[in-house]
Amino acid sequence: MTVQSTPHLDALQRDGFVVVRSLLSPEEVTQFRAVSTKATTLTRAGHWPHFRTVPKQFPPWPTTPPPASEGGIWGVQHLLHPEMPGRAEFARFYFSEKVLAVAEELLGVKRTEGGEEALVMELFNLLVAPETKDFKLRWHRDDIPETAGPEEELKLLESKSPQGKQSHAQYNLALCPDASLIVVPGSHRRVRTEAERNADPYEPDMPNQLVVELQPGDAVFYDSNILHRGVYRGKPEGGEETRLTLHGSIGLKGMSGNEADKKVRATAVLQHGVGAWVHRDDAAFGVGERAEKMRANLVAMGTGEGVGYSLQG
């Protein structure tokens, strides 16, 4: 019997993140950088209504982008929305076999011919540089509140990754050189230390922290409950885009039969508003049957009305 090699999964389980070098070719980087620049330019000009705004870290975000003098936007939301310019190109990346193959390894999916689709379409956004000023995110875990005590924190960590198994694969794919993500390796499997718990929310030198450095075409897949933060360098107003990072997540269907766990994942995904449009008649992607099955798995999660928000701020 052949034992399947899982180097990406081994690194993720050990460190809480894994860097996949050159996931995109230089030619693909050029193509996706062009369509991402167009989407960012439209959003900065107020022609795309879904974005992340400075100085807010978590949803809900304002409906009007702040002026560049206040930092403007730091993200473009809903790249797979039917009305997003360049949507076909973004879908070509999100549903590409090279991305899904890594997700399958990390999620323990073994595909069979004609079998049920195990992956779920989740989120696909773009992280960009704020204008005129730097912007920093505080230390956090995506699905665990900072106010959780040690016992609750351990319980939540174990329930979200039982036996080390993830419910989703989350990644950043850099189209420009990117050193924005800072992590504490190994923190995805343990409660915070006293130093981490008592640290300033924006502590610049957390013990054992590591800056994840990506070159164009590189991706980092990471456990969303690793202790992490973001540091985003501002760019000159109207200047060339200095950060274009595709930020996506791919879910695993039916990982847990626990209704409370299902609600937590539904909140994490649907709080961003994807449920409001994914069921539309014009939301089909035209990039293959698998994409439509993954979309159907997301539609089955609901519209997102009343799910609330994972974190505040």
Largest sheet: 7 strands, antiparallel
Q: Assign the structural class, choosing from mainly alpha, mainly beta, alpha/beta, alpha+beta, or little secondary structure.
A: alpha+beta
Unreliable residue stretches: 256-261, 304-311
The chain-level mean pLDDT equals 88
Per DSSP E runs of 2 or more residues, the count of β-strands stands at 11
Instruction: Identify the CATH homologous superfamily.
Output: q2cbj1_9rhob like domain
**Strand order of the main beta sheet, please?**
1-9-6-11-4-3-2
Order of helices and strands: HEHEEHHEEHEEHEEEEHH
The fraction of residues assigned to DSSP E strands is: 15-25%
Reported CATH architecture: Sandwich
Percent helix range: 25-40%
The best one-word shape is: globular
Total helical elements: 8
Instruction: Return Rg in Å.
Output: 19 Å
InterPro entries: Phytyl_CoA_dOase-like (IPR008775)
Organism: Aspergillus pseudotamarii
Protein name: Phytanoyl-CoA dioxygenase family protein
Q: Descriptors for this entry?
A:
disordered C terminus; alpha+beta; Jelly Rolls; 313 residues; 4-stranded antiparallel sheet
Overview of the structural elements:
- This protein has 313 residues and is an alpha+beta fold.
- The chain has one domain (7-255): Jelly Rolls (Sandwich), CATH 2.60.120.
- It has helices spanning 7-15, 26-44, 87-94, 97-107, 150-160, 194-198, 259-270, 289-299; strands spanning 17-20, 51-53, 73-76, 119-128, 135-136, 168-174, 181-183, 210-211, 219-222, 228-232, 244-252.
- Strands 1-9-6-11-4-3-2 form a 7-stranded antiparallel beta sheet. A 4-stranded antiparallel beta sheet has the order 5-10-7-8, with no helix packed on it.
- Residues 256-261 and 304-311 have low confidence and may be disordered.
